[in-house]
Design a protein that fits this description.
By secondary structure, this protein is an alpha+beta fold. It contains 5 helices and 5 strands. Strands 1, 2, 3, 4 and 5 form a 5-stranded antiparallel β-sheet that branches. The model has no long low-confidence stretch (mean pLDDT 83).
């Protein structure tokens, strides 16, 4: 009887977490987020605040890491003038995400390579002012550190973006 209960519990939890992953993927497919400078990071990193949108607060928190790396690669961000300067996207080709779709699909999958280049800078707690209800979803602000030098090097070695020394 205990084995049946354990198996049943595992099946139910697998279904529950699988649905949460699917919702997270749907939220990410649209890449709905905002990135802003959050201060000066360690050398070779960017310290950014990512605002992610989702109907479930905990999904937005997890997606913030993925969104931060996506933003550094494809969007860049605006500086605030005091502590931060505006940073351009690592990818200079505006079509690279479509041209290298297979690479980026693998790169940004759950547990994909992107996770090596991002760390949540807070202890996981979200300040009340960084958690807003907007219509039927949440807008969650998370400060993360993106290891942009290592990310650039990996994308260059994969042939996805051009190196800084490759000329114009």
């Amino acid at each position: 009887m205990q084995k049946v209960i354990i198996v049943f519990t595992l099946i139910i939890s697998n279904i529950f977490f699988g649905q949460a992953r699917k919702k997270a993927e749907r939220d990410t497919e649209q890449w709905r987020y905002e990135v802003e400078c959050a201060g000066t990071g360690a050398e070779g990193t960017y310290l950014v605040k990512v605002w992610s949108y989702s109907k479930r607060g905990n999904v937005a928190i997890e997606q913030a890491k993925k969104n931060a790396v996506h933003g550094v690669v494809f969007k860049g961000f605006v500086g605030n003038g005091r502590d931060c300067i505006t940073q351009k996207a690592l990818a200079t080709n505006p079509n690279i995400e479509v041209e290298q779709k297979a690479y980026f699909d693998n790169f940004f999958e759950d547990g994909g390579k992107y996770i090596k280049y991002v760390n949540v800078s807070s202890d996981g707690n979200i300040d009340a002012k960084d958690r807003m209800k907007v219509g039927r979803e949440y807008k969650i602000g998370i400060v993360v550190s993106v290891m942009k030098d290592a990310l650039r090097k990996d994308l260059e070695s994969a042939g996805v973006i051009r190196g800084l020394s490759s000329g114009f």
